Amino acid sequence: MRLLHTSDWHLGRSFHRVSLLDAQRDFLGHLLRTVEEEQVDAVLVAGDVYDRAVPPLAAVSLFDEALHRLARLGVPTVMISGNHDSARRLGVGSGLMEHAGVHLRTDPEGCGTPVLLSDAHGDVACYGLPYLEPGLVSASLGAEGSGHTAVLRAAMDRVRADLASRPATTRAVVLAHAFVHGGESSDSERDITVGGVASVPASVFDGVHYAALGHLHGCQTISERVRYSGSPLAYSFSEAAHRKSMWIIDLDAEGEVGARRIDCPVPRPLARLRGSLEELLHEPAHAAHEEAWVEATLTDATRPHGPMALLSERFPHIVSLVFDPEPTGESEPEVSYARRLKGRSDQEIAEDFVGHVRTGRAADSGERRMLGEALEAARAEDMADGATDRAPGEYGRSGAEGSPERAEVRR
């Protein structure tokens, strides 16, 4: 049996405020062409169909269009809800959709009831384990614990119990949305940590022939039988080096797994560039990235004026700007925030802050005058309100120890 394993569509998500709806539509068209060209027997979608619990209408419309097209192909589709989805909303109409070959598994109580597929070698039982939030499902699943491992083990106990009641020739596939030990995360997955432990051992999936995983956005092989498809599109610059793809999984008569990757369309490459403004504007090696989505990290000791406008002339698709000045070699040993303030006036602290965030360019006379006027106005307001006298350095003080080492601005 040939299966197409995909996950983490995140329909409705944008990339640094750039809409990805057209790119997601292109991906779904690519998926449908792959189903036809590769003669796929079933499609597996391992969660995070939408990017949020209440998706925008355009994303809902795109999902509806994809379901209709899959149904017209006559290829069964098994989907589970992920941690970004609203399980109840995604599962609306699931009973009716079953008749069209679209099997939505969003209720944890149904994790031991498979979608039965068949080929010339017999049945393939597909079990859908939607994202299991431990605090919500541990009791109903009878889990021996309150963490992710405990609830997944309880769900898999139900899977193995059902499988044991079927003919020995039945092959088993499970879809799950979880963070499995050995997987590599990126910045664009929502944290699912509960009690400090979010990941689970791959051994929880023992007893099935293939585990189609979702949640992590990089395509990964945990073992020959346990894999992440990854997201079809990059959703953060931490995914710049990812090769976005889907898995074609072939299950033979004995349940042995053959796997190969099918690349997904890339709407626009990602580039993370670092250097001074002058380097980024004129370095010939950066010509290859002029049509990419760009994250630029400026290392100038003094923050340049209007860098985004200048960079946009060379990189029209720049979407993120970070300031990270190179060390000057003159930094002093770290001391606490309170110690750095001791004995300094409010005016001196404010002026020091300006010099800190601009790294190398202290407040000029006009700025010092404005800071003084603002501080005087604050003191006058306190006096009018009957506030007690403050010691020097107390205006704007957070009370926390330590301070940021650099200022960071993003577009």
UniProtKB/TrEMBL annotation:
Family: Belongs to the SbcD family.
Keywords assigned by UniProt, alphabetized: DNA recombination, DNA replication, Endonuclease, Exonuclease, Hydrolase, Nuclease
Organism: Streptomyces bathyalis
InterPro entries per the UniProt record, alphabetical: Calcineurin-like_PHP, DNA_Repair-Maintenance_Comp, Metallo-depent_PP-like, Mre11_N, SbcD, SbcD_C
One Pfam short name: Metallophos
Region (Disordered): 375-411
Stated name of the protein: Nuclease SbcCD subunit D
Protein purpose: SbcCD cleaves DNA hairpin structures. These structures can inhibit DNA replication and are intermediates in certain DNA recombination reactions. The complex acts as a 3'->5' double strand exonuclease that can open hairpins. It also has a 5' single-strand endonuclease activity.
Domain Nuclease SbcCD subunit D C-terminal per the UniProt entry, residue ranges: 267-354
Residues in Calcineurin-like phosphoesterase domain copies: 1-91
Superkingdom, taxonomy of origin: Bacteria
Self-association state and partner proteins as the record states: Heterodimer of SbcC and SbcD.
One BP term from GO: DNA replication
Alphabetized GO MF terms: 3'-5' exonuclease activity; endonuclease activity
PANTHER family: COMPONENT OF ATP-DEPENDENT DSDNA EXONUCLEASE, NUCLEASE SBCCD SUBUNIT D
Compositionally biased residues, Basic and acidic residues: 375-392
